[in-house]
Design a protein that fits this description.
Elements: E1 46-48, E2 51-53, H1 55-62, E3 78-81, E4 84-87, E5 105-108, E6 111-114, H2 115-120
Antiparallel strand pairs: 1-2, 3-4, 5-6
Amino acid sequence: CETCKQAVPSDCPVVYADRAGYSRQWHPACFVCCRCAEPLVDLIYFWKSGAAWCGRHYCESLRPRCAGCDEIIFSEDYQQAEGLAWHKKHFACLECETLLTGKPFALANSSLLCTTCSQSRV
């Protein structure tokens, strides 16, 4: 098995990943996403950099995910702050929904707040 390096008994089912080549095999429980360890046996998998990826993490390796709606951002026009990304329309105060592009804001636990709402929480 590619993951656990244990022998696969002849009476045990194995997983072959077409993109990995048929010389590699896994126990069904060992064929998991390289990022989150989600079992991939019954799912569509992606092969990248010599490893299997679930759809969510494969997409995240190509494009950022919006911290506001949790969807992949396909546009080149998006907002970034402190390692997170937002669609422009989701870069808004959690409380009053004021768009925050170009305005001061507070970021706590991935939640955006305008300065007014941030001060009212204190």
